[in-house]
Specification:
9 strands; alpha/beta; five-stranded mixed barrel; about 180 residues; fumarase
Length: about 180
């Protein structure tokens, strides 16, 4: 295996549009900084806040952010399937209304979502189910919205070199 196939692009949050333009399907990335975690139960609530312009009032500035489709528990964090209705239906509102630039999860997205991500200047990256590794790369974890949902609430994490592979960018998909 060549050295270049093992190299990761370092990404630091918040992400800028130029950074996203430089990402391509198959790129390996290592994300550092603040990311947000949520899944099926909380994402429709976050989208509702975005649609009503209430995100900042709720203390959530998602401009240039990363949203990881995951629950957070004592065991750590691990991706959930991104092609669930509640998750796929949150993608475009989060990118268009809240400024989210990178989405993390596992599995494929439907082709309409892949094209829309390209239109919105955002990308989707996959993380293999590696909870123990991600736990070791999570510096801090704080519940920031809907704590009554427990491990499925909306969390803010401080991370160091989260590994991921860009799966959808510029209207293309690694799954196609």
């Amino acid at each position: 295996m060549s050295k270049s196939s093992l190299e990761f692009k370092a990404l630091y949050t918040p992400l800028r549009s130029g950074t996203i333009r430089d990402l391509h399907v198959g790129d390996k990335v290592a994300i550092s900084g603040t990311i947000f975690c949520g899944r099926d139960a909380v994402l429709p609530k976050i989208v509702s806040l975005a649609k009503t312009g209430e995100l900042v009032k709720a203390g959530l500035d998602l401009e240039g952010s990363v949203v990881f489709y995951s629950a957070v528990s004592i065991a750590g964090v691990g991706p959930t399937s991104s092609n669930k209705l509640e998750i796929e239906s949150s993608i475009i509102p989060l990118t268009r209304l809240a400024g989210v630039k990178l989405l993390l999860g596992k599995g494929s997205l439907n082709n309409n979502i892949v094209r829309s991500l390209g239109d919105e200047g955002a990308v989707y990256a996959v993380i293999p189910p590696i909870s123990a590794l991600l736990r070791s790369k999570t510096i801090q974890s704080d519940c920031v919205a809907y704590p009554e949902l427990g491990m499925e609430a909306f969390y803010r994490l401080e991370v160091q070199e989260y590994p991921a592979i860009v799966a959808s960018a510029h209207g293309e998909s690694i799954f196609s």
